[in-house]
UniProtKB/TrEMBL annotation:
<keyword id="KW-0812">Transmembrane</keyword>
<feature type="domain" description="TonB-dependent receptor-like beta-barrel">
    <location>
        <begin position="329"/>
        <end position="740"/>
    </location>
</feature>
<dbReference type="Pfam" id="PF07715">
    <property type="entry name" value="Plug"/>
</dbReference>
<feature type="signal peptide">
    <location>
        <begin position="1"/>
        <end position="26"/>
    </location>
</feature>
<dbReference type="InterPro" id="IPR036942">
    <property type="entry name" value="Beta-barrel_TonB_sf"/>
</dbReference>
<keyword id="KW-0732">Signal</keyword>
<dbReference type="Pfam" id="PF13715">
    <property type="entry name" value="CarbopepD_reg_2"/>
</dbReference>
<keyword id="KW-1134">Transmembrane beta strand</keyword>
<dbReference type="InterPro" id="IPR039426">
    <property type="entry name" value="TonB-dep_rcpt-like"/>
</dbReference>
<dbReference type="InterPro" id="IPR037066">
    <property type="entry name" value="Plug_dom_sf"/>
</dbReference>
<dbReference type="InterPro" id="IPR000531">
    <property type="entry name" value="Beta-barrel_TonB"/>
</dbReference>
<feature type="domain" description="TonB-dependent receptor plug">
    <location>
        <begin position="126"/>
        <end position="229"/>
    </location>
</feature>
<dbReference type="GO" id="GO:0009279">
    <property type="term" value="C:cell outer membrane"/>
</dbReference>
<keyword id="KW-0813">Transport</keyword>
<dbReference type="GO" id="GO:0044718">
    <property type="term" value="P:siderophore transmembrane transport"/>
</dbReference>
<keyword id="KW-0675">Receptor</keyword>
<comment type="similarity">
    <text>Belongs to the TonB-dependent receptor family.</text>
</comment>
Length: 771
């Protein structure tokens, strides 16, 4: 061996011995500190919290979900500092030895008063591990002027079950009506949801955010939430001297619709913590136009109001809320044929026979709906960890439906219902600096539904009284990127009915009860990928119309037959969601399976009912085991600083597993995609959006339907939004063109597709001034 080779070998051995003298772990710098920062009081995430490690002079800022991560740390001991304005600082010593560290940190409000800092802290957070999406900010601004159902079509997996252009009910994963719960400022909206032509009695202008929860949420909210939940939430009330006004002016070419909304929010200077909000809106629209003709008697008139007064301090919070909804809607005249041969003729014709011109007049058939909602809510902090809550709500829903009748009867409603609802919620929340939080509560619902005499028609449904008692508990474990949540609930419901048929009193006394439970998890796999999974059981007792309908439903122009022996629906739904998020790209994929036992549906019998008023199709309520499954996809990508794109799509399948057939009115496959170009200047922004909606033909039709499913269609839409900063005020001006090419199409989920095309081109001008 050469001398130089021996020297090299000795040097290598020596170097190895020197390095071996140091502990192996001293060179391991692949550790990380990961965590989540939330409010101690209500579990809401805190974006923008500051995290700092003094020893390495390195830190992070929490993202929109309150998550943070600091990577590439060596083994050792570190001092972690967490700060957020208006909250007490957290300082913790962390030792990294065998693995990375993760934890959830709960920040407590600081009692020190800070000038210019306003802390609300009393808006309850909806914490759930199931799929959730929300409309807020610019996207909500662009939806102004639309009804609630149309606004929610911007969310993947949400469509509408509509009756013409003015009446739309939200559909989540194929379920609607009494299977979807809508909360108006925290109170479950209670109206005559069972009717296909009964739209939610709520003004979307009162919302600062509209949230859609796609899982089975009966443990949290009760039986009517088996298909999902829609939260319509106004903004927080201010707690100091502050005034803000929001004005919306809208106009639409189709129907020559005008819409105005005004919201004013303020806080008291003399009484710290006292705030208020008043809001009102009015809408007037006339005859809707399809691409080639007007749809007779399709006008709309609305007048709405809401007001809120609240007070909060460190210990106590109270709120009084009232909303008033008043709507008059015209129903397409040709939809009420009253004669089987006329019905067959109009379906074969594919469009109404009635030729009409534009008018703002609303004649029979029509509906008038008035809805009152009053709420009192209060909470009290027992200590820094426990909070007691009380919420009471009162609602009065008055619904009148007018049919085409002769003489004096034409001025009298054919259906006249008054529904009184009282709800009481008592619950306690607990949050702790450690990993656990939860809610335990009691929910009571009392309803009384009355048929107002004088219609001259046998009531479609009987008078009834209903009481529902629910007891529930939910617990959540949070540690860094992991959240595990579980809950259980027991409900008991009693329904008593009474009505006269042929001068004989018919009554019933029915009881229903059931346990429900759920288990869910949320995990942040990395800084960019999160996974959530939720498995929940749900149930829904049959509604009174499904049990006792016995006659002509004037709004649907059909005879409906109920079945008193129907059993409760019971389901098991599994929802999984995977989200990928970076500075430029956001992708979310949601898959679900929902097995429903005793699924209740309205089925055409093929028979006809003949009366003096005409001939009507007969439908009956049936039950079958059902399987719903599908996927939702949504995403966006920023190609450059100016150009971005988005994509939303959904696929759903629903089968009758007993007969291996399909159910009626299940949404067909659809995809909505578009490109946006944004120009930012000094004090102003211009945004141009071109989008395309693709809807496939529904290939999975039931065995019997009045007409085949309509063809597939594609709609192109354009939107322009200009945002101007005028000192401390802001002006938003929008121009939208819907159905640019005036395409003739029929939506399968529109009950009036048998009689008419959907709405044609519509040009909207929207002005919003914030001052």
């Amino acid at each position: 061996m050469k001398k130089q080779d021996i020297s090299a070998l000795l040097f290598t051995i020596g170097l190895f011995l020197v390095l071996s003298a140091f502990p192996a772990h001293a060179q391991n710098c692949n550790f990380s500190i990961r965590g989540k920062v939330i409010h101690l009081e209500n579990n809401q995430s805190i974006p923008g919290a500051y995290i700092w490690i003094e020893e390495v002079k390195n830190g992070a800022i929490t993202d929109d979900d309150g998550n943070f991560i600091i990577r590439d740390l060596c083994a050792g001991t570190y001092t972690l500092k967490i700060q957020f304005l208006g909250h007490k600082e957290i300082i913790e010593t962390i030792t990294l030895e065998k693995g990375s560290f993760n934890k959830t940190y709960r920040l407590e409000e600081d009692s020190m008063e800070l000038e210019g800092v306003e802390i609300h802290g009393h808006q309850d957070a909806i914490q759930t591990t199931t799929a959730i999406q929300a409309l807020y900010g610019e996207e909500l601004l662009e939806s102004r002027g639309e009804n609630l159902g149309e606004s929610l079509k911007r969310v993947a997996g949400v469509t509408t079950f509509s009756t013409g252009n003015s009446i739309a009910k939200p559909v989540i994963h194929g379920l609607h009506s009494n299977r979807i719960m809508i909360l108006n400022n925290g109170i479950r909206l209670e109206g005559q949801q069972w009717g296909a032509e009964h739209a939610p009695e709520i003004d979307p202008f009162l919302a600062d955010e509209i949230t859609v929860i796609k899982g089975a949420e009966t443990v949290r909210f009760g039986p009517e939430a088996m298909g999902g939940v829609i939260l319509v939430s106004p903004s927080d009330l201010p707690t100091k001297k502050e005034h803000k006004t929001d004005l919306h002016l809208l106009g639409a070419s189709n129907g020559r619709m005008g819409n105005i909304s005004l919201t004013h929010t303020g806080g008291s200077e003399k009484i710290k913590g006292l705030g208020y909000r008043i809001q009102g809106s009015a809408k007037r629209g006339g005859t809707i136009q399809s691409p080639n003709y007007y749809q007779s008697n399709t006008g709309i008139s609305e007048l709405n109001f809401s007001g809120t007064l609240g007070y909060s301090n460190k210990k106590l919070g109270t709120e009084l809320y009232y909303s008033y909804f008043n709507s008059e809607l015209g129903i397409l005249r040709d939809a009420h044929t009253g004669n089987l041969s006329d019905l067959q003729s109009i379906i074969e014709n594919g469009r109404p026979f009635t030729e009409t011109d534009f008018t703002y007049d609303i004649d029979n058939p029509k509906q008038k709906v008035i809805h009152h909602l009053a709420k009192f809510k209060s909470h009290y902090h027992l200590n820094s960890n426990w909070k007691a809550n009380l919420q009471y709500g009162f609602q009065l829903n008055e619904r009148q439906e007018y049919d085409r009748r002769r003489g004096e009867l034409n001025t009298r409603p054919s259906l006249d219902l008054q529904l009184y609802t009282n709800t009481l919620d008592l619950f306690v929340d607990h949050t702790h600096p450690n990993a656990f939080s939860g809610t335990w509560g009691l929910n009571i619902i009392q309803q009384a539904n009355t048929n107002v005499p004088g219609t001259g028609v046998t009531p479609l449904i009987p008078n009834y009284d209903m009481v529902n008692l629910g007891i529930y508990g939910m617990e959540k474990f949070s540690k860094g990127p992991l959240e595990i949540e579980g809950g259980i609930r027991y409900d008991f419901r009693n329904v008593k009915t009474a009505r006269f048929i042929n001068r004989e009193l018919e009554s019933a006394d029915l009881n229903y009860q059931n346990f429900t439970a759920f288990l869910g998890a949320y995990y942040q796999l990395s800084k960019t990928i999160t996974l959530s999974s939720n498995l929940g059981s749900a149930w829904r007792p049959p509604n009174v119309n499904e049990l006792f309908s016995q006659g002509l439903h004037h709004g649907a122009a059909a005879v409906e037959i109920g079945d008193q022996n129907l059993e409760s629906e019971k389901s098991l739904k599994w929802v999984n969601s995977l989200e990928y998020s970076t500075n430029k790209t956001v992708l979310e994929l949601t898959g679900y399976v929902n097995s429903i036992g005793n699924y209740i549906y309205l089925n055409p019998t093929g028979e006809n009912f003949v009366s003096l008023r005409g001939t009507f199709n007969v439908y009956e309520y049936l039950q079958a085991n059902a399987l719903f499954y599908g996927i939702d996809l949504s995403g966006s990508h920023e190609f450059t600083g100016k150009l971005s794109g988005y994509l939303k799509g959904s696929i759903i399948r629903a089968r009758n597993t007993e007969t291996d057939s399909f159910f009626p009115f299940i949404p067909s496959d659809r995809m909505d995609w578009g490109m946006a170009y944004r120009l930012n200047g000094t004090g102003k922004t211009h945004k141009f959006t071109l989008s395309n909606l693709l809807v496939a033909r529904q290939q999975r039709e039931p065995d019997f339907d009045l007409a085949p499913a309509p063809p597939a269609y594609a709609l192109f839409n354009f939107a322009y939004l200009q945002q101007l900063q005028l000192g401390e005020n802001k002006l938003n001006v929008g121009l939208q063109v819907q159905n640019i090419f005036n395409t003739s199409y029929k939506e399968y989920m529109n009950r009036f597709r048998y009689f008419t095309d959907d709405i044609g081109r519509n040009i909207l001008l929207k002005i919003n001034y914030q001052f």
